[in-house]
Amino acid sequence: MGASFGRGGATQFVQDIANTDCLIIQGSNMAECHPVAFQWVTEAKLRGARVIHIDPRFTRTSAVADKHIPIRAGSDVILLGALINQVLRTGSYFEEYVAAYTNASMIVSDDYQDTEDLSGVFSGYDPETGQYDLTSWAYRSRKPGEDDIGEAGPEEHGAAKAASAAGHAHGAAGAPLDHALIERDPTMQDPRCVLQILKRHYARYTPDLVTSACGISAADFAYLSESLVANSGRERTTMFAYAVGWTQHSLGAQFIRTAAILQLLMGNVGRPGGGIMALRGHASIQGASDIPTLFNLLPGYLPMPTAGKDETLAQFLSAVSSPRQKGFWTHADAYLVSLLKAWWGDAAQPENDFCYDYLPRMNGNHNTYQSVLGMIAGTVEGYFLLGQNPAVGSANGRLQRLGMANLKWLVVRDFNLIESATWWKDGPEIATGELETDKIGTEIFFLPAANHAEKDGTFTQTQRMLQWHFKAVEPPGDARSDLSFYYVLGKKIRERLAGSTDPRDRPLLDLTWDYPQDEHGEPDADAVLREINGTYLSGEQAGQALPGFGALKADGSTASGCWIYSGVYADEVNASKNKLPDAQQSWVAPNWGWAWPMNRRILYNRASADPQGRPWSERKAYVWWDEQTGRWVGHDVPDFPLTTAPSYRPADGTSGPEALAGDDPFIMQADGKGWLFAPRGMIDGPLPTHYEAQESPIGNPLYPQQRNPARLVYPHKDNLTAPSFGEPGADVYPFVATTYRLTEHHTAGAMSRWLPYLSELQPEFFCEVSPELAAERGLVNGGWATLISPRSAIEARVLVTERMTPLIIGGRTIHQIGMPYHWGVGGTGAVVTGDSANDLLGVTLDPNVSIQESKVSSVDIQPGRRPRGEALTRLVADYQSRSGATVVTGNDIVNENDEREERR
Amino acid sequence: MTDRAAFLGWPALRQLATGDYLGRGQAVVSKKTRDKLARTATADKVVKSVCPYCAVGCGQNIFVKDGKVVQIEGDPDSPVSRGRLCPKGSASEQLVNSPTRQTTVLYRAPYATDWSPLGLEEATDMIADRVIETRRRTWQDKDENGQFLRRTMGIASLGGAALDNEENYLMKKLYTAMGAIQVENQARI
Ligand code: SF4
Ligand code: SF4
């Protein structure tokens, strides 16, 4: 979402679901995966909202929806693209909103060529590297003083080579533009303007195509588009909700982009009951991106520097944002310098670029799957696992375990002896004989962890809200918080290096690493959060907590560990501890927890008012301009400069927040607008385009280019790809498998399979198949089935159910198989165990965010249990050889197979 | 029991006397039930917390007695969850008190076929030594073009989505200072 709106977080707060008139849940089984949030869906229904669930499976979410629309897994861009086409063709988009708040009227470079022109790739593609050069996607510039359409100015939005797999990079700010002088056509008629490009790009995404490629009937499509149109506009709003069903694809980020485009066209962003609700699966997964345990980011979505490109602080900052663009991201220098001051304190001075050189550099994609290949290759020696169980929870579990078996040392911190701690004696490869315990040289430390009841701290939940959990009891035995573990580890490392003259040890020795500890040695989480919020370092207020990110300076006079969280400790009050009871505050509940940025609960809420600053309608009033006081006011904290009047227009040459016009609601975007077309920020295309999954039962119905040409492939003998439709051997793995989660378990099971209550509720691993598929393969309800992919073979109990619907695609029946992925083999003390669905999956990643494709893969299914021991390895090998899958098949990035064209 | 008390103890009269006309409340509560007290009523303190499973972030009230968690319930004050918890949140008391929880450090030496015990302090010392050794051995100062790298590719880390912001912050800070960049979490998975 960052590339479309300027920030990656959910646009709304959970309770706001109740205000929607139409909720489209796609890529999420919300009733089962986010059950307590689902109460707000029920609330919306009681208020008359329509709820539509689009999902391959009929689930409990479908059961209470007004309509369930089954879809072929992985075809979402076709469906949403067809909706975009429909609203553009019939003129039923929200024209006034689109003209004022989006980049629809901006003119794009004459060099831009669409996938429609180039058989499924955009201009700028380099087949050698599999990467795009983004230059030709740029806006056309105008000269200062010129208004709107004028002579074409020089294309100076800068050459930008797509960095491979940046990912989550636009969590808090949009992509940079060189400046904000952009040529526009306010009538939106110019053939090179964004709206017209959009029309052409999606012209072939028709209702017929939806029927033939997604398996959705014309009547269902009509119902969907009518619901969307009838529930958008001045008086009404539609909301989209998604979860990992959308992100876990080789073009996952583009799925979300398609919904973002649609919501911008319908005028549903920044308004109550609208937007896009991202439903995240872990207590603090939003927080773990904000303060990232991610390789390519520093806190607050500042990028980690890249070797060669960001040699100096000045070079680094010029790539992050341009001083001539609009919005708050022009202050990135203040955010970075304050971070460096927080980390290196007095050592960070203007003369040494505030220790910028202490930051390590990237030179490629260093994501977790790459690290696993590094373990297998022997370059990665040591590995820390913190509350994560990759032996079960990551794609291609066997690859994960083989990687760990080749480490020098492994540290596992968890509550229980999970599979990732015990694979060396009871993992699946020990059973097949591929690994032998006494030949594995990995040294392993298991350290018990404290849980949420045993420590103080904050989680950032799905709506960007920080909530403090108070420590209730002391952790038992050796169990400690990760705060304590890392603090002590850091101290020990620094003690050992004390006195070192080696320059490489300076960053460790100069680090600010001094937190108050309680009598049990536990560092004070409050003090850490205060450091994250930041303090003044000089002047009258020296030593005091900062009021918010607006106070950050680039001259070294402020420190802040994460600029977007600045404000959580304003006035020395830890606002994440706010727990004013629901009944005692407004429906926006601003005094419960604290949401970044600056406690704003609906983002881009300036757009809830019309260009003149009046609510679009009484019914949907949220934030508006108050003429009397000359300020923005309303139910929420305005996500806009408080005193910038709706009529304000900046002079040419103005930059930064002052350059935001009174009708630029997207304040983290370089041009202040919502991006229908992304001239920067997406590395696999400015517009979402349908490609088939890495493994697909059909040929791409739109382009000869079968798969996302910019996806990340990992050719490896232990990561083979099943042939897709039209490739030899495609019938060996004929079915589509999709994974999902259950209410009663949690991801890889570490926090649920060891609990008797939850294990009793969902004791056994199973797969869901339709009665038709059961008949075809002789599968019996309650009996066993073996599932085989090019990576592995596993067994599951069979659940025959009409909830699985065979789809007719291109005249052929496509069967889909559903599997929850919570079980694993091995582990000590687990109440229930079972084969792991993730062992079936291969590693292919979305190029924007490096997230694996686990929602779609090809498998075969046979009745009965899987073979044991070495016979299992033989079964998998036999399938591989029959399919003809090799290390190269499926991994050529551009197409690929011209024969397919004829066959289609 | 006096005759009068026994008489008033007749179910129908008991219903009338207590105003429980439908006979579903006070009138049908046995002495055994009456003498029972909820764990939540006898707790020494109630601590405000947040469910550690999914990202809805439901509010929890943790009931503590004699330094032990005795019950975890939904927090009715939370505007997000309004007192509700799903099966996972409701089961979280077992997460704290599970008998299968591993509460001591375990060590597996290279090629060993089983775990052996190890002290927490000693384990942390050994890990600090491993980090320093690996970092030395795998340090990359510059790439082949002479451009700064200042990092180690010998150390990787996975996890964070279940951790507190403060924990992620210290991890990221320490890893970055030691030059370890292969730091990842569930957001990627
Ligand atoms: S049985 Fe399941 S749904 Fe019913 S109250 Fe218990 S946990 Fe909730
Ligand atoms: S109680 Fe259930 S819905 Fe609420 S945060 Fe916990 S896991 Fe999520």
Automatic annotation (TrEMBL), chain B:
Top-level division of the source organism's lineage: Bacteria
Keywords: 4Fe-4S, Iron, Iron-sulfur, Metal-binding, Oxidoreductase
Principal location listed in the UniProt entry: other
Protein localization: Cell envelope
Cofactor or coenzyme needed: [4Fe-4S] cluster
Database matches in Gene3D superfamilies: 3.40.50.740, ADC-like domains
Domain 4Fe-4S Mo/W bis-MGD-type stretches: 44-100
Family indicated by similarity: Belongs to the prokaryotic molybdopterin-containing oxidoreductase family.
Name of this protein: Dehydrogenase
